[in-house]
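Data deposition worksheet. Section B asks for the primary sequence of the deposited chain exactly as it was used as input, without tags or linkers unless they were present during the calculation. Section C holds the resulting structure in C-alpha cell form. Section D is free text for depositor observations; keep each observation to a single sentence. Incomplete worksheets are returned to the depositor.
Section A, Depositor: J.P.
Section B:
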Amino acid sequence: EHVSSIAALVCVYLAHARTYYKDADGNPTRAPDNIEYTCNPLLELFANLSPDEFGPLKLIKLQNHLIIEKWSRGVINQRIGMIKRMFKWAVARQYISPVLYHGLTAVEGLRRGRSAARETNRVKPVNENYVYAILPYTSPVVAAMIELQLLTGMRPTEVCMMRPCDLDRTGKIWHYNPPQHKNLYRDIERIVSI
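Section C:
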C-alpha cells in the first residue's frame, strides 16, 4: 500500500497513534495530541507533497521553519524526532521506501550554540523555603503528601495513588512500588525508597 501525500501519511499515522498510545487502564495518553501538534507545521509546508519527495533537505527546511517560528531548540529536536518516528513507522508498514527514512536519519539534531534556535533556561526545582511556607495553608494530608514528595522525589500522581498494599514495610527502609508510572510501558520497575 502507498500513501499519496504527506497529509495522507499523517492521517494514517494519527489513526494508529490514537489506538496505540494508551495507559495501563486503556485510556488514551497525550501522545496523539502531541503528534498532531507536531505535524501541523509539517502539513503547513508539505501537505500535498508525496512522501517519496520528502528527504533530508525538506526536514532541514522544516527545522529552519520552526526556528523562525521561535520554537526552542529542545522542542524542535523532540518534534523532529517524532516526525522521523512517523516515517520509520511508515517504512515498517511499507507505505514508503526504507531509503527515505534512512536519509532522514542523517539529519542531526540542533546543538546548543550551533544554531539560531532559541535556548531556554533549565527548569530548576522550587526553593524549599517556598514549599515549607505554604504547608501551614494546606490540610494535614496534603502537607504530608508534599513533604513525602519533597523527600522522595515522587511524582504527584505517584503520591496521590499510593496505597498501603503497595508498600513493602518489612525493613527499616520502606519500598513503594507504584502500580502505574511513566516508564511502565518500557517494562521498567519503579521502586521508591522511603
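Section D:
The mean pLDDT is 90.
Residues 139 and 145 are 10 Å apart (CA to CA).
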